[in-house]
Design goal:
The structure holds two protein chains of two kinds. Chain A contains seven helices and no strands. By secondary structure, chain A is mainly alpha-helical. Chain A has two domains: 99 residues, Cytochrome C biogenesis protein (Helicase, Ruva Protein, domain 3, Orthogonal Bundle), CATH 1.10.8.640; 55 residues, no CATH class. The longest helix of chain A is centred in the C-terminal third of the chain and has 28 residues. The N and C termini of chain A lie far apart (88 Å). Chain B is of the alpha+beta class. Among the domains of chain B are: 164 residues, no CATH class; 134 residues, no CATH class; 103 residues. In chain B, a hairpin with a 5-residue loop joins strand 8 and strand 9. Chain B starts with a helix and ends in a 22-residue tail after the last helix. Classes of the chains: A mainly alpha, B alpha+beta. The interface between A and B is large, with 59 and 68 residues.
Chain lengths: 171, 661
């Protein structure tokens, strides 16, 4: 049977691209330093740990969160989160820890600060502009009146109605 | 085969360039023979591109590994259907497929409209051929699928494992065909702008083509959601992945377009806007096609990257400059024939619909591209994912649902408020009931509110059907089934649209429920051990290890119980494909129990059989797939051929009027 992917020692160098391997090794080393013992192969995660993992991007995969990714690095990050939680660190401290190491891109929800306000306000501004355009369009339409529908002269209306009546009777 | 294919492409390129010249010259100088020859050039291009596709598919089927493209994407041990599907599994092949769809549909459009839209056709043809010229140029100069390898390898590398899935047979071809087929309505729109024939001829000509593209793209998106759901293993179907987002954009703008052309048809308004939407839809299709390939945005779809990005960027700017230029040039001819009289009118309703759809499209576009701006201007890598979109787009979608509850009740020109309120009576009552029950029993207040809005919209639509059927029963004394059939048959555009609305509601229920009430648990189990999640118990029976022709498959076998009752056995697989052992892929074990999906992910395992499993309970996800079926039904209804209106001969003078005249 194929060994599972968690068997890290033999697979790392051959399987991942170099940069990924380096990143994993770095985290691995880091993890070992922090905990001074090898990562327990399996450790069930608490809902809070899963929640924090869901706020982080897996740095070596494309567009998946640490919670959802199957990569080795993500697995170790999950374990690290759990261990930090067990040691009583707060959610903010844990997130900050990862931001310090991987940059702000590791956060799945971009923080509301600095130029990133542009990201958050962009859609709102777009929508407001859209609403303004629609309102202006409606107003221009309603103020410039009803002349678009020409009012027929009264004798014409009378004649049409008479014809319609005649039509109705002839049936 | 390689010579045949690349020869066909070069010939097609020459023919396309000739066709553009012949169309324009023929239209200018009024030379019917030249125009005829230009149209034939388009048929020829379609045939030649199809021939190139045939050559490439044959190269795949015969395992002709002299071709670099074939060698990189298939291998001898792959099943035949994946070998064939591998033809669009990479960039060159998918561009060739794009060109095939655009040229074949374009030729078909030329043929079908040959008698009805004579004045538009030359320019439509020229626009279409200019799109094909660009593609064929890329296909012959930078991204030829027929490039030969210096040395023929004994076997190919095989298809990227992520693509070896039944979804591969439907999702990429539908999505690419959706993108490509927008060329046809776009070409008609440009022809209308060039000729200045901006009445409703061109609209009538393209409604079905726009509808076709929109339906294909929509199905492509839904199949993609299904694929993601059973492969990616995060228990979801839509991850706001950049590439998904970019495919959603033209779908959103074309949805807006399909609604706003109704206003132009009925009331002669929004002409500029409709052309702008059409232009935006096509530009976004091009953008979506190339950004998948460019590797600029990081995405789960990044398996076919290359450097043809700047080709597309140049082309895209060309399209935008020419399109916007023509639009501005023709502005005076695009005045509305009438004005909007009231905010509570159907035309105003469509206006708000367009505002919301483009607002959502803008938000998605902004979020997806902000990643690029951030790297460009601030040199910071950020990621914009589900949290952003859920927060920004979620509320807008809810408002859109709310509008779907009101829109069908608005009448043209002006709606009497008392009548509107009376028609809203029952739907609002239903919504309030659902909201109260929801607030009492749900933990999440937003879910109660969202359900209430969706219920109101559903009830309004049901009421529309109900009243239509009731009217037919009264007038024609038909039994309910016949009345329902006739109602939809006679008014297929209106009720087909409502069917699509039903599909949206079903999907909305599925999305709301699975977002609000998903449960997730992680278990580490030895064979025979059990875990509980919600009302369910899973019993892990053990691992199974199999070999297939091209892969090794490890499966976890799990029994599912609801309460004490045995519900069934589910297997969650891991695939290790030859040559791609480092990229294991998965197929999740999904079992439908009642309306809940029990979703089992095999994370990892040890030699003694201990497995780490993630289990999700996803309620109502099945409604999303039912919604997809209803969507298909609705679009078929929209296409349903209408009997050509019988020409009634109107007498010169009305009876009774003769004497006066």
């Amino acid at each position: 049977m194929r060994r599972c992917t968690s068997d890290r020692s033999e697979r790392l160098s051959s399987r991942k691209p170099l940069s990924a391997a380096v990143a994993i090794l770095a985290v691995l080393g880091l993890t070992l330093l922090v905990m001074a013992r090898p990562v327990a192969a399996e450790e069930p995660l608490s809902p809070e740990a899963l929640d924090i993992a869901n706020q982080l991007n897996c740095p070596v995969c494309q567009g998946q969160s640490v919670r959802d990714s199957n990569s080795e690095l993500a697995r170790q990050m999950r374990q690290l989160i759990q261990q930090k939680l067990d040691r009583g660190e707060s959610r903010e401290e844990i997130l900050q820890y990862f931001v310090d190491r991987y940059g702000v891109g590791v956060l799945r929800e971009p923080p509301r600060q600095g130029y990133l306000w542009l990201l958050w306000w962009g859609p709102v501004i777009g929508l407001v502009v859209g609403v303004l355009v629609v309102v202006l369009y409606l107003r221009r339409r309603s103020t410039s009146g009803d002349e678009s529908v020409p009012v027929p002269p009264p004798d014409y209306v009378e004649r049409v109605e008479r014809l319609l009546r005649a039509e109705g009777e002839s049936r | 085969m390689a010579q045949l294919g690349s020869g066909a492409l070069i010939l097609a390129l020459i023919l396309a360039v000739y066709g553009i010249g012949a169309s324009l010259l023929g239209a200018r100088r009024r030379m019917p023979e030249l125009l005829q020859s230009a149209f034939r050039a388009t048929y020829g291009v379609a045939l030649l591109v199809a021939l190139a596709v045939f050559a490439l598919v044959m190269a795949f089927v015969r395992h002709d590994f002299r071709l670099a493209y074939v060698a990189a994407r298939s291998s001898r041990d792959m099943p035949l259907h994946y070998v064939i599907a591998a033809f669009y599994g990479g960039q060159e092949g998918s561009l060739l497929y794009w060109a095939m769809v655009a040229s074949v549909l374009g030729a078909l459009a030329l043929y079908l409209h040959r008698n009805s839209d004579r004045l538009l056709l030359p320019y439509m043809n020229a626009t279409l051929l200019s799109i094909l010229t660009f593609l064929l140029l890329v296909l012959t100069v930078v991204a030829s699928p027929f490039r030969l390898l210096p040395v023929t390898p004994p076997d190919g590398a095989g298809l990227n494992p992520l693509l070896r899935d039944p979804g591969m047979m439907a999702h990429p071809p539908l999505l690419l065909a959706g993108y490509a087929s927008f060329s046809v309505p776009f070409a008609f729109g440009m022809a209308a702008l060039i000729t200045g024939r901006l009445g409703s001829d061109w609209l009538r000509a393209i409604r079905r083509w726009a509808l076709l593209s929109w339906a294909i793209l929509g199905m492509g998106l839904l199949v993609g959601a299904w694929w993601a759901y059973h492969v990616l293993g995060w228990g979801g179907y839509w991850g706001w992945d950049p590439v998904e987002n970019l495919a959603l954009l033209p779908w959103l703008t074309s949805t807006a377009f399909l609604h706003s052309i109704i206003v132009q048809e009925r009331r002669g308004m929004l002409k500029v806007w409709n052309l702008a939407l059409l232009l935006a839809t096509f530009a976004l299709s091009i953008y979506g096609t190339f950004i998948v390939r460019s590797g600029i945005l990081s995405s789960v779809h990044s398996f076919a990257t290359s450097d043809i990005g700047h080709w597309f960027l140049v082309y895209l700017s060309l399209v935008l400059v020419v399109g916007i230029g023509l639009l501005v040039y023709r502005l005076p001819g695009l005045q509305s024939e009438r004005r909007i009289e009231s905010v509570t009118s159907r035309e105003a309703g469509f206006l708000f619909n367009n505002l919301l759809l483009t607002g959502i499209a803008f938000a998605v576009f902004w979020g997806t591209n902000f990643v690029l701006f951030s790297e460009l201007f601030w040199e910071t890598r950020i990621s914009v994912g589900p949290p952003f979109y859920n927060r920004v787009v979620g509320p807008l979608l809810l408002v859109l649902l709310l509008l779907m509850a009101i829109g069908p009740l608005l009448s043209w020109r002006r709606t009497e408020l008392p009548i509107l309120l009376r028609n809203l009576r029952w739907p609002v009552a239903g919504a309030v009931a659902v909201a109260v029950i929801g607030l009492l029993f749900f933990e999440r207040a937003w879910a109660a509110f969202a359900f209430a809005v969706a219920i109101a919209a559903t009830l309004v639509t049901v009421q529309e059907f109900w009243r239509g059927i009731a009217a037919r029963r009264r007038m024609a004394r038909e039994n309910p089934l016949v009345a329902a059939w006739r109602l939809v048959e006679r008014n297929n555009r209106r009720y087909g649209g409502y069917l699509v609305h039903f599909a949206v509601f079903l999907i909305a229920f599925g999305v709301i429920a699975s977002n609000a009430f998903q449960i997730e648990r992680q278990f580490v189990l030895r064979p025979g051990e059990r875990g509980t999640i919600g009302a369910y118990t899973v019993v892990y029976r053990g691992l199974d290890d199999r070999r297939t022709a091209d892969a090794e498959v490890v499966s976890a076998i799990v029994d599912v119980y609801r309460g004490d009752r045995f519900a069934g056995t589910v297997e969650s697989h891991r695939y290790f494909y030859r040559n791609y052992e480092d990229q294991p892929t998965a197929r999740m074990g999904i079992m439908l129990v009642g309306m809940d999906d029990v979703y089992v992910v095999l994370d990892r395992w040890q030699d003694d059989g201990t497995a780490s499993l993630r289990v999700y309970i996803n309620p109502l996800v099945i409604w999303i797939w039912i919604g997809a079926a209803v969507f298909l039904l609705g679009t078929v209804t929209l296409f349903w051929p209408q009997p050509v209106p019988v020409a009634v001969r109107v007498p010169r003078t009305l009876p009774g009027a003769a004497k006066e005249a």
